Amino acid sequence: MQTGTLISLALYFILMLAIGLYAWKKSTDTSEGYLLGGRQLHPAVAALSAGASDMSGWLLLGLPGALYVTGLVEAWIGIGLFVGALINWIVVAPRLRQQTIAYGNALTIPEFLANRFPDKATTLRVISAIIIVVFFTVYTAAGLVGGGKLFMTSFAGAFGDVGMSDYMFGIWLTAGVVLAYTMIGGFLAVSLTDFVQGCIMVVALVLMPLVVMFGPGGSAGESLTQVQPGFLDIGYGLTFIGFLSAVTWGLGYFGQPHIIVRFMAIRDEKDVSVARNIGMTWMFVCLIGALGVGLAGRAYIARNGLAIDDPETIFIVLANLLFHPLITGFLLAALLAAIMSTISSQLLVSSSSLTEDFYRLFLRKDASEREIVNVGRLAVLLVALAAIVIASDPESRVLGLVANAWAGFGAAFGPLIILSLTWNRMTGAGAAAGLVTGAAVVIAWIALGWNASFLGGEGVYEIIPGFIASWLAIWGVSLGTAAPTPRAVPAN
Questions:
Q1: What element of type H or E holds 439?
Q2: What is the pLDDT of residue 353?
Q3: Domains in the chain, please, with CATH?
Q4: Whether the predicted model's global pTM rises above the 0.70 cut
Q5: What is the pLDDT of residues 228-243, one digit of tens each?
Q6: Membrane spanning segments where (predicted)?
Q7: Among 143, 222, 247, 358, which residue's Cβ finds the most Cβ atoms within 10 Å?
Q8: Given this model, what pLDDT does residue 368 score?
Q9: Contact status, residue 73 vs residue 229, Cβ threshold 8 Å
């Protein structure tokens, strides 16, 4: 293990913990401060926090790995995500920021739904909270798998004296640091660390493809076209079902609680457009960089007669092969940043659901603000431990786990969030039907093996039937039940 790499990683961990301590001093006295940072996020922080918590380890592991195996055709996933994110910022962000305040100053998505549909308040809070905790535990596990793979690939054998494999050591270390700053500093700590992590990620994703392409032994020029037939053809071997399964990743954005909660926390509705421009620019650069890592990395490996066992580790392999140890540490910190930014956001949203939508709702209605904050910290720990158990299999695929959780949220919450913000005729019964239908269809689709495999194989991505079924359930049940009593909400 290189000392320089360790120094870079150690500095990164120290910075994350320092931000956690700063946030602890600033915003953890009340539940609104702990869960939403007091709704005072700067637009740049909100933008990069939404982006970094969205991209996760799949941006540096899963997507480059898929491109490494298949070629440019996998770029359709990134295209679908970019379009979906843009629509999310335009349609959902300003309305959610405004309506969560108008409907009782809701601090969580389940609480907003309960306030929006008071006749089904308890039902909606319980169902949505269960879905959030279940799918976020799986999603968090995907991030921890990325942390395990990082240490297993980069530091093989280095931690044998601690009584566990390098993979499990990576999982525990990643989880430990994330738990520290999330439990201490809450939403503000998560958002500020996301901002720093987003900056690190974009620098790394610009730097690495350039070095791989044009550095010593690089893969520029004809090498990229000689890897395999159709490697640079975005339509090579693409079927209609494969195309739909890729681009419909974008549908998932509307229902990702850890992303849309950033919209709720922006300091002013007028700042949404500024945050959107910053966030979409950041996302475009990062996606292009991830494409470059996968494509150029495959050409580099082929040109230099090398081989890797796990395509999802191509970023890690290149970081170790091509850079000075200090820079390698920075690049690995970028990977950890992608992983940790998402894990921390997911843990906090899961914690908020457990505290606000279970503990306060059923156990301690009159709990003090300090008690709620402390229970939230305990909930973060419990969800993390469950995710560690799921992530303990080193054969897990990051992209596969992310795809399943992304579809679950997108189908259950996507149509629900869009329609609750834009359709006054929607009813509480329709909302509950959409939640249950979307989640159930996704789970059934996966269980029956009808879903797409993004590293080979055909199938329909489970978000497609889930999203459609949820939308139809909301529409049909809402029209079949009594119209809700009109409620005045300030115009957008």
A1: helix 428-447
A2: 81
A3: 3-397 (1.20.1730.10)
A4: yes
A5: 777 888 888 788 887 8
A6: 6-24, 75-93, 126-147, 167-188, 195-214, 234-254, 274-301, 313-339, 372-392, 398-419, 431-451, 463-483
A7: 143
A8: 79
A9: no
